UniProtKB/TrEMBL annotation:
NCBIfam families: GGDEF. PANTHER family: DIGUANYLATE CYCLASE DGCM-RELATED, REGULATORY COMPONENTS OF SENSORY TRANSDUCTION SYSTEM. Residues 45-174 form the GGDEF domain. SUPFAM superfamilies: Nucleotide cyclase (SSF55073). The lineage of its organism: Bacteria, Pseudomonadati, Pseudomonadota, Gammaproteobacteria, Alteromonadales. CDD domains: GGDEF. It comes from Moritella marina ATCC 15381. This is diguanylate cyclase. InterPro entries: Diguanylate_Cyclase, GGDEF_dom, Nucleotide_cyclase, Rev_trsase/Diguanyl_cyclase. Gene3D superfamilies: 3.30.70.270.
Length: 174
């Protein structure tokens, strides 16, 4: 009976883990946000959200195929993972869009993390996708949050900031 309960609990944990994990990248997916908001205290320390949107991923998919697009998406995750602490999170929102949750960090710390992600991504691009002129990059948007109640609006605000940044980049501004 005890063995049966342990096995059942293990299966439930595995199913839960699969339901909140992106299959391609291994990072969390949107479902994780609901779990994080429900789990008391998980985001109460506040922090900063960085909303990342991959540049050139659609072009890579269209010109070279989805296998190469998947490589670009994985590179974004690998770069972000290598630049954050173990208590931080990466969430794939869909396609080539990601949310990085930096617990207990302010926006200036988040900018430094983003700069590190950009540097790692630039280096990875040279080795993994050398035929992509100027490599894969990401456009950022930032927003601080103070608690879990604030978290969802921080995602929305950082997404809007990212769109402004991306729009400015297309117009040749920074």
């Amino acid at each position: 009976m005890l063995l049966h309960l342990n096995l059942k609990n293990a299966l439930i944990r595995e199913k839960t883990t699969r339901s909140i994990t992106d299959k391609l990248t291994g990072v969390y997916n949107r479902e994780f946000i609901e779990l994080a908001l429900m789990k008391e205290g998980m985001l109460n320390s506040g922090g900063t959200v960085i909303y990342l949107d991959g540049n050139k991923v659609k072009m890579i998919n269209d010109k070279f195929g989805h296998d190469y697009g998947d490589i670009a998406i994985k590179m974004i995750c690998d770069a972000a993972n290598s630049c954050i602490r173990k208590e931080d999170y990466i969430i794939r929102m869909g396609g080539d869009e990601f949310v990085v949750v930096l617990k207990g960090c302010n926006e200036s710390a988040a900018v430094r993390v983003f700069d590190s992600i950009s540097t790692v991504l630039r280096l990875q691009s040279k080795s993994k996708l050398p035929f992509i002129e100027s490599g894969v990059s990401v456009a950022p948007g930032y927003c601080e949050f103070t608690n879990s109640t604030d978290f969802e609006s921080a995602i929305t605000k950082s997404d809007l900031e990212m769109l402004k940044h991306k729009d400015a980049s297309k117009q040749g501004c920074k």
